[in-house]
């Protein structure tokens, strides 16, 4: 059983930056691809980014490409989401998730474990 705890959310002005962290415990972190998802008010939860278990490959949603960067430190059992040039439409609860599927997938159903989420609010 893997437990995931997100941190680093908050209120930021448009154009600013935040760095989210997700700390994992209770399992072998380096076995899992790690993803970030987000859910804005009144909307479905959507894919943001994913990083392979080794850290060698990443995929980002088109809406965040060039502004957000996912990374991981397997020695610290932590995955990060660096968010730059934030926009009001990035306002959402951000979730990290762990996938054992090994597919670098965007599909939420392929993720085995989820964190509780951290709120990011971008003011205009």
Outline:
Helix content is 0%, strand content 49%. The protein is an all-beta fold.
What does this structure look like?
By secondary structure, the chain is mostly beta strands. The chain contains no helices and eleven strands. Helix content is 0%, strand content 49%. The strands form two sheets. Strands 2, 4, 5, 6, 9, 10 and 11 form a seven-stranded mixed β-sheet that branches. A four-stranded antiparallel β-sheet has the order 1-3-8-7, with no helix packed on it. Strand 4 (33-39) and strand 5 form a beta hairpin. The protein is globular, with a radius of gyration of 13 Å. The N and C termini lie far apart (40 Å).
How many strands, which pairing sense, and closed or not: the largest β-sheet? 7 strands, mixed
List low-confidence stretches. none
Mean pLDDT: 97
Percent of sequence in beta strands: over 45%
N→C terminal distance: 40 Å
User: What is the 3D form?
Assistant: globular
Number of helices: 0
Write the element-wise H/E pattern from the N-terminal end onward.
EEEEEEEEEEE
The residue fraction in helices comes out at: under 10%
Radius of gyration: 13 Å
The count of strands amounts to: 11
Structural class: mainly beta
Which key terms come to mind for this protein?
11 strands; 7-stranded mixed beta sheet; globular; mainly beta; 124 residues; 4-stranded antiparallel beta sheet
Helix and strand arrangement:
Layout: E1 3-7, E2 10-13, E3 18-25, E4 33-39, E5 46-51, E6 58-60, E7 68-73, E8 78-83, E9 92-99, E10 113-114, E11 118-123
Parallel strand pairs: 2-11
Antiparallel strand pairs: 1-3, 3-8, 4-5, 4-9, 5-6, 7-8, 9-10, 9-11
